[in-house]
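Checklist before submission:
- one chain only
- standard amino acids only
- sequence pasted in full

Submission:
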Amino acid sequence: MTSHAGTASNVSTTDVSQKKPWYTVLYVQVLIAILLGAVVGWLWPAFATNDWIKALGDGFIKLIKMVIAPIIFCTVVSGIAHIQDAKKVGRIGIKALIYFEVVSTFALVIGLVVGNLVRPGAGFGGGMADAAKVAGFAKQAEAQKSVDFFLHIIPDTVVGAFAQGEILQVLLFSILFGFALMGLGERGHTLRSFIDDAAHGVFGVIAIVMKAAPIGAFGAMAFTIGKFGTGAILNLIGLIATFYVTAALFVFVVLGIIAKMVGFSIFKFLAYIKDELLIVLGTSSSESALPSLMEKLERLGCSKSVVGLVVPTGYSFNLDGTNIYMTLATLFIAQALGFELSMSQQITILLVAMLTSKGASGITGAGFITLAATLAVVDPRLVPGMAIVLGIDKFMSECRALTNLCGNGIACVVVAWWEGELDRTALNKNLSKQIDPADLETALTTG
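Returned file contents:
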């Protein structure tokens, strides 16, 4: 079987390195679209908040979500089915979870440390609003218990899991199906080949859908600025700036050190996934870049089995940006309301956030629900304070999604290296040049 990584390597160096007109490069188109969307939202807010403008962003995200379940199924099943040793699958999963917990703890601690040092909420005099909306988030958070979360992983029906796009439910079924197919041996050869071919077809769909990324980014950014206005950003600029700087500190220092230990540069890695980062920036959802991120990681030298298991799992268990946000926002709200949290309460934030963050996926706004769950456990009196950050949560969600994407990309490379499934030649070759996701279609058709 030829993996996507192997397939991509068939593209000649000349083809990949050909200089394309700047206006045909996807990340340039997305960046221009984001800037145009911001200008339109600022100058013509009534037009930007039109349902059809909003539909451009929502439509693009729906197009991506449409193929997430089949992609996860095909990559996970194919990755497991082609492994001869079942212990290897468990080994990859355990290593991934260990890495997730260690790095997530770093993210939570950094959020707490920065929150205590900078104290962005001290002396805050803003009033509270949208109490009804906050009550709604708090009500959703009440149901988010550990037992319910684990039970929710098991789908009522397999078809329902695919229809509703529940990543963890699809992942569970895919793992079971992959093991079953592995047990069939040679009898499962035809089915394995069919799933491999189906994966190529689904990634081909992604290559087509990605051409609409600039349109989706324009619509999402125009609607956001048009609805919330630039004043929403300036209203709590201190918290936003603190959060963005803290997230950058985590990415460049913590993830940078981890990348250095594995043997590559965090800056080159970020340049390699710049297209995905811009798409996430425009849509505020890390799920919008999931399919192309998985394809790029395979081309980067990570084995299919590692990519198929680590990335989808990381979208629920390795949300570094959400972790930073929860600890920092909790301290901000406490400071704004005049509460001084004791050391034991801050340790409680760490422990609770480790659990509540596991229920948040890459969907826009999920971090706000997990914040409600965390506040309710630490001190119920803090929950109404969520109204303070409700107006700017949209702008915070962009940074959360960007950090989550970076964290999951690095996690996949680290686990592949740890497992001995990282192709160093492909890693160095791909990080040293710029590849446009539009070349994905060419790479697939040459395989």
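Reviewer check: Confidence is low (pLDDT under 50) at residues 1-17, 126-134, 361-365, 440-447.
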